Amino acid sequence: MNAQREQIIETLQRVESLTADTISKDDLQHIRHIVLEHSKDIEQQTEIEREFGLNPILFDLQTALITIEEIGASRAIIISTLLHEYVHHGLISEDEINTTFGADVVKIIHGLLKVNELYAKSSSVETENYRDLMLSFAEDMRVIFIIIADRVNLMRQIKELGSDETRRKVAYEASILYAPLAHKLGLYLIKSELEDLSLKYLETETFYMIKEKLNATKRTRDEYIRKFIAPIEEKLQAAGLKFHIKGRTKSIHSIWQKMQKQRCQFEGIYDLFAIRIILDSKPEKEKQDCWQVYSIVTDMYRPNPKRLRDWLSVPKSNGYESLHTTVMGPEGKWVEIQIRTERMDDIAEHGLAAHWRYKGVKDSGAKLEDLLKDIRSALETQGTSDEQVVDQFKVDLYSDEVFVFTPKGDLFKMPKGATLLDFAFQIHTNIGSHCSGGLVNGKNVPVRTKLQTGDQVEILTNPNQLPKRDWLNYAITSKARSKIRQSINEQELRTATYAKEMLERKFKNKKLEMVEPTLMKTIKRLGFKHVMEFYKALTEEVLGVDRVIDTYIEEQKRENNELPLAETVSASTFRLDEDNEDLTGRSGKDVLLIGNNIKGVEYNLAKCCNPIYGDDIVGFVTVSRGITIHRKNCPNCRRLLEQMSYRAIEVNWATQSSGQFSSTLHIVGNDDVGIVSNITSIIAKEKNILLRSIDIKSSEDGLFAGNLTVIIDDNKRLNQLIKKIQAVKGVKSVTR
């Protein structure tokens, strides 16, 4: 423990020395007091400690060093990294943090605590809390910087810690989530390190094979790079340029990816080399100097025209600026050349965090905020699975960019592989929804056309055009895909509502009672796997209503033959939605928010569970009565979720109750004289609670049992009423 204490003090001193220009002396004194005063009080409770035995205080100090040295983080990020653990353990309050360090620090700490809570539930990003995790990130991207630094720190230290399974879990998470995030933020060194460390734990043998072969050929590579650089240095010096050159070998993960892509062994990879020429240029001469270097290099070595990347004229959305080309060096080996200035290199090393340090440079952080808004939109769209979200998130984070123009010359950045459809939704949701094609460089093209850098794009719309399901095969951006899914869901709901109304009218004309389980069997017998497909066929008149009714009658007869006892059929029917639903007359009021706040949809409160304001609820699309609302703990609701989950729709109560609700209580108690009067008198004394009906029956064992129905505002008042009735002498139980 003494050794750890010394290490904590030593690391804290290093943090203080590195942040002298960033954090005030008063702030540093407060931080030192908190760390030294409370570090012993924190028990080892975090996920990190449980799995790997790391000291949380020392770990956070080390993470803070990464944010300082490798990310170049701001004051608020550094302080939040250092102090969030103390807030988490209740040793210092958010109010105290706010008073001492400001609201900005509190906001970041709040985001970190939210992420920690999600990891406490399950540390695997493959679980359903992945969606919540992404939403937490999308609230404040500074939280992302800290979590990335935290993961880098963890990955560096777990080589000999924990089980192989836990190391692989952390490595997998780093590879699918944190490396792509680092890439999007422009943290390329951290991104490469996370990828290499992930490969080390996930593909151990491959990692060490590549590493050993790189070590074995290091002397040869270094000599090659020296010979390649020498004539370039001579020419650049003659041109009067101030510069320095870095030669490097590509990362192990990058080499492994090339081996996978090219399906070859290590020896078959030729473009292992990368040279970075970094210029000391004045701001007004940066582009001119970079292009001059490009001219000198390509005069000496033959360039590959397909590998020119100009991020000088149009920087990446994370602020990255550089000029890339690949040239043929001696011995027929391809060498990648990166040309940039000192300022550009700082941004390339430290990403957006460094970008913000330069005054007069256009802030590219807004582009990342746009990305996070799109991610939030995708996460909140109904019908999007967690697996789809993971895949889409990776596409948006890792993709390169193409640059396209509108007919007016406005420039748009799109991810590589984006189609005309993505571009249409990028301009406006309404334009995307009604997109019927477009003009690319003056030529008519369909919505699935992939865009290339330099394309001039004009979108054609048709007011009768609506999103189709196959559009999801063409759109790759989160914004486009989420809006398409949302529109399809709304279309299907409208189609289902119209088809159900039509079907109900026909059933009434035939004087038939519509029993939903029988209808579901009829739908399957007609060859439909999904009920929405059935409704669509009815709406489009592909399927005739008369055929549905004939098949339904046959199915009903078949059931009656299998279940001859009328009592059994009646009991089964009693459990159905349609026979247990109560049309309350509140359909026109804003009591409920259905789906993505869909308007004009009829809904009913199920009689089997009588949901009232405040209950946890879920909606089901019914055949004849719009949306039926059940309590989530209702037995019928659980059965429907198991058997017909495709009919479920998210439903929430509005901010405030706008009416009263019917609720039935089942009461059991001693059959004493006056007990029923005592119960009813309690209800009579309650304000705004009305006793609607009461049905009490005595039994031979000296007990009574019965139901009473009340009209009440919400579940809070109902719970209070239940407690008061339970307190009546002789009452044994009161349940809804």
Your description of this structure?
- The chain has 30 helices and 22 strands.
- It has 736 residues and is α+β, with helices and mostly antiparallel strands.
- It folds into five domains: 201 residues, Hypothetical protein af1432 (Orthogonal Bundle), CATH 1.10.3210; 150 residues, 2-Layer Sandwich (Beta Polymerase, domain 2), CATH 3.30.460.10; 89 residues, no CATH class; 75 residues, no CATH class; 75 residues, ACT domain (Alpha-Beta Plaits, 2-Layer Sandwich).
- Strands 1, 2, 3, 4, 5 and 6 form a six-stranded mixed beta sheet that branches. It has a five-stranded mixed beta sheet with strand order 12-14-16-15-17, sandwiched between helices. It has a four-stranded antiparallel beta sheet with strand order 20-21-19-22, with helices on one face.
- α12 crosses α14.
List keywords for this structure.
Hypothetical protein af1432, five-stranded mixed β-sheet, 22 strands, 5 domains, six-stranded mixed β-sheet, single chain, alpha+beta, 736 residues, Beta Polymerase, domain 2, 53% helix
Low-confidence stretches: 44-49, 359-368, 378-395, 562-589
Give the number of DSSP strands: 22
Q: What's the CATH superfamily of the largest domain, by name?
A: Hypothetical protein af1432
**CATH architecture call of the largest domain:** Orthogonal Bundle
Our Rg estimate from Cα atoms comes to 33 Å
CATH topology of the largest domain: Hypothetical protein af1432
- Average pLDDT confidence is 78
CATH class category name of the largest domain:
Mainly Alpha
Structural class: alpha+beta
Give the overall form.
Answer: globular
